[in-house]
Design goal:
The chain is an alpha+beta fold. It has a domain of 143 residues: Ctag/Cox11 (Ctag/Cox11 (Pfam 04442)), CATH 2.60.370.10. Helix content is 19%, strand content 35%. It contains one helix and eleven strands, in the order αβββββββββββ. It starts with 8 loop residues before the first helix and ends in a 12-residue tail after the last strand.
Length: 208
């Protein structure tokens, strides 16, 4: 005797609802993942968390201390076909003194490429005290094939750093940049790991 299977329409509708909720949840999680990156960057820049430097609203600290501090410069690339490096590896400035350093970038690709720099400092706790007045990292940079660009950064170390117990003995701060491709440049840069430039740079003092 043949048996006929009868499908419950209520159960079928329930399955559709569950499947729809799962798809919506999955899509929402993907959207949150993409949104988390810029939101995290904004949080770090506002608080100095993770060694993120501050964007200064004024060009000067207001006072300069009779205390030297060495600022070292680091450059890395993550997917951009550029040669990216600091002009000088380090400078010595006074705490509170406004100084200027320079990086250079050369596009080694056969078409224009747009890059964007992320940044932080070491030690991480110094992030809130490292103030950048002007920086190439504030905007995207587009280089034509073979073009070389001078990329200055103007900064000062907030004198209040000497009042932080955990930083009172800090004598060196390292400012590090990593250059990434802007989305429209894919597939030039997809999933290429961070690489450190190995070009030797002659150490020299920079103008303040």
């Amino acid at each position: 005797m043949n048996r006929q299977v009868v499908t419950d329409p209520t159960k079928k509708n329930t399955n559709r609802i569950v499947a729809g909720v799962c798809i919506a949840f999955f899509g929402g999680m993907i959207g949150m993942a993409y949104a988390a990156v810029p939101l995290y960057a904004m949080f770090c820049q506002a608080t100095g968390y993770g060694g993120t430097t501050q964007r200064a609203e004024k060009q000067y600290a207001g006072r300069v201390l009779d205390r030297d501090i060495t600022v070292r410069f680091d450059a890395n690339i993550a997917g951009v076909p550029w040669q990216f490096q600091p002009v000088a590896r380090s400078i010595v400035i006074k705490v509170g003194e406004t100084a200027q350093a320079h990086y250079t970038a050369t596009n080694k690709f056969d078409r224009p490429v747009t890059g964007r720099a992320t940044f932080n400092v070491q030690p991480e706790l110094a992030g809130p005290y490292f103030n950048k007045v002007e920086c190439f990292c504030f905007t995207d940079t587009t280089l034509k094939p073979g073009e070389t660009l001078d990329m200055p950064v103007v900064f000062y170390v907030d004198p209040d750093i000497v009042n932080a117990p955990e930083l009172k003995d800090v004598k060196t701060i390292t400012l590090s940049y990593t250059m990434f491709p802007v989305e429209k440049n894919k597939p030039v840069a997809s999933s290429v790991p961070v690489e450190r430039n190995k070009t030797k740079v002659t150490e020299a003092s920079l103008g303040g």
